[in-house]
Amino acid sequence: MPRFIFHLQKGLKEWIDDETLDFPGLADAEQHAREIAAELARNESPSGLQDCFVVVKEMDGTEVARVPLGKIRSH
Q1: Alpha helix (H) ranges present in 1-75?
Q2: Domain enclosing residue 62, as ranges
Q3: Which of 22, 34, 53, 56 has CB 3.0 to 4.6 Å from 1, enough for a Cys bridge?
């Protein structure tokens, strides 16, 4: 099962989570990134979400998905 790393990126800053997670495939990892983005966006103002992304990477560091927080806003 593929392992993925999830990072939070705002502009040029990146916060790396050392925990890796197993998912059956990229679609499941992207869904998890959307859930993270929705949770993070829940209590933020739209201006605070500019240039914010949940970045999904493979174990070798290759970026495979990028989910913008501003478009995932949860109500």
Answers
A1: 26-41
A2: 3-68
A3: 22
